[in-house]
Structure formats: structure tokens, C-alpha cells
Amino acid sequence: MTKNVAVPEMTQNSSKPMQYPPPRSGNAGASYPIHKRFLARLEVCNHGVTPNAWTDSMKISSPTQAMSVSTLVDEAYIAWTARYPSALDRFEEIIGASKGKQIVMFLDYDGTLSPIVEDPDRAFMSDTMRDAVRDIASYFPTAIVSGRCRDKVYSFVRLAELYYAGSHGMDIKGPVKGPKNTKSKTKAVLFQPASEFLPMINEVFKTLLETTKSTPGAKVENNKFCVSVHFRCVEEKKWISLAEQVRSVLKEYPKLRITQGRKVLEIRPTIKWDKGKALEFLLESIGFANCDHVLPVYIGDDRTDEDAFKFVRKVLRDRGQGIGILVSKFPKDTNASYSLREPTEVMDFLHRLVDWKRNS
């Protein structure tokens, strides 16, 4: 069994400076200690978690109000962007890193391609964003990697030429034919490493639907290989009771664990599989396993995307390649190398990448 509570340590930048990402000074973050509450991480498992730990963690990753403009331009944010510069401002640097390499694009969905909305069933992407993703996929192998059910993500994106990794990478399927402008060997992929958990996940979903009825605003979503309990529309004073409801259900399922994102608690199998493993699997599936001429680029906004950023950084350290871009309007500790503020900037970045490829 896993430990009851895992609190990952803060990321330390102890590696030697590299050409990219830009060198990160150890003093760059010293000027924003007030934001440590935004940088803390807490992965919650089935047992032994105090109510205060639940709510503190929920508040850390799920601020109830958008940060003000003045906060976004204060010294703390400026110091943070010195460590994680804008991918738009450093676009030429990123392009330079891609010289002689095949870019493979990995994109989260919620908060990356679509804005975060109160009703997760209405997290629609704009037509202009869909066009941008379609254009990217015409030049580079492209995958959507989401905590959502794969079918739900596909219903939002509606682009058959992409790879889709739903349920945090536990449900993967790819297109039969790859992008026309790449030389990768694509094939239809269907990989479900947690299939044995399906009956258990369905059972937990039904139980949580009933258990959380007493909490106004709570929404339980079945993402096939994981269950999401959204508390975006729940009053903050009721978060602790909702967390206890979820915890009481999970006591009976030691093979499941709870992780946390922005205003969502996610119940997942305890198997060693995450978005980082999904990236590794997809790279192998499209013909780029242990390849020196590939540049994986991952763009995401939430805590669960850190597993993908860690994988990308590992690729960078081992073979000198790989780029992670965090979408965030406020300082966060991250394994990404660059940042973008919101989905509109993600779209701008995709447009610039397509324009560069067309012109080159």
C-alpha cells in the first residue's frame, strides 16, 4: 500500500545551467515567500488525513477569487516569471531548441484549450482554438492528455487526427493516419492499463453520487478510469464536509487514491500510471522511443500536469530536449520550463508555431 499522505518536496533547481530553459537563479524566488501557500503540494490518500489538512490543501490549489491585476504585476509574479518566462517572449529560444528535431505536441484540455468554467460539462473550446489545434496537428503529431473521460474530451475537441489520452492517460487511443507533414509511423492505439478497475470505479461513482447529494453545488463526474468530485460551485464553508464525505467512501477502497486539482478531488487507481507515463507510451507508439531527434512539448495548467512536466524534464536532462509550459496567472512551483497566462496565450503560441513551420 502507498503511504497515507504524500507531501512532495518543493522543486529545487540544482542542475547546472543549460542553453534552454533559461538559467534559474536560486535567488529568483526569494522575494516572494508570501506565495508559499500557492507553492505547497499535498497528495491525499485514503486514510489518516485530518479535516484541516483537507481544507488547507483545497484552499491552496483552489483560490475562491481571481487574483487582482495589481497582484499579477507585483514583485512576486515578476520574480516567478524570471524563473518561468513566457513561452511567447522566448519563442525564438524554443524554436532554436527544435532545430533538427521533430516537435511532438501534448496538450491538456481544461484550463489550457478551454477556460475553467463552473459547469465542467460546458467547458467548450472556441472554434478559433479548434482551428489552431487542427493546424498544429497538420504539422506535428498532437495529443490531448486530460483527466477527463476520453470520449468526453473528444466530444469537446472533435478532431479525428489527434491522439487522445483520457483519465490521466489510463485510456489512450490514436488516429489511424498521422499528420501528412511528419515522417512518424502512426498507428491506431488503444491502451487501458487500469481496465480491471472499471467495476470498482463505477461502484464508487454511484456511491459518491448518493453520498454527496447533501452538499449543494457538488458535482460527481465519471471519467471512466477515474471519478472527479467538483467543488467549484460549493460554498467554501462546506468544503470540509464534502471532503469528509469523499473520504468516508474511499475508506472501503484501499486500491483507490485521491489526488487534487483546481476545485476538484479525483479518485484514481493506485497503479503507477500518470500523464508522464502516458507521454512516454505515446512517444513510443508514434515511433519516437529513445529518439534523439524528437522535441516533446507539453502545455498544461494543473497539478496533475506536473507528472508530464517531470517526464519532459527527464527527457531534457537525458537527451538534451523537451519543453514544459505551465498555464497560470499566479506563481506556482512547477517542473515546467516556461509559462503562459491563459488559453488565449496558448492559442497565440500555437499560431506562432504553425506560422514558423509554414515559413520554414
Automatic annotation (TrEMBL):
Biochemical pathway: Glycan biosynthesis; trehalose biosynthesis
Location of region: Disordered: 1-26
Catalytic reaction list: alpha,alpha-trehalose 6-phosphate + H2O = alpha,alpha-trehalose + phosphate
Primary enzyme class: hydrolase
This enzyme's EC code(s): 3.1.3.12
Cofactor: a divalent metal cation
Family annotation (SUPFAM superfamilies): HAD-like (SSF56784)
Keyword tags: Hydrolase
GO biological process, one term: trehalose biosynthetic process
InterPro entries, A to Z: HAD-like_sf (IPR036412), HAD-SF_hydro_IIB (IPR006379), HAD_sf (IPR023214), OTSB-like (IPR044651), Trehalose_PPase (IPR003337)
Domain of life: Eukaryota
Record-annotated membrane-spanning stretches: none
Gene Ontology MF, one: trehalose-phosphatase activity
PANTHER family, A to Z: TREHALOSE 6-PHOSPHATE PHOSPHATASE (PTHR43768)
Assigned protein family: Belongs to the trehalose phosphatase family.
NCBIfam families, A to Z: HAD-SF-IIB (TIGR01484), T6PP (TIGR00685)
Record's function text: Removes the phosphate from trehalose 6-phosphate to produce free trehalose.
Protein name: Trehalose 6-phosphate phosphatase
Name of the gene encoding the protein in the UniProt record: LOC120261599
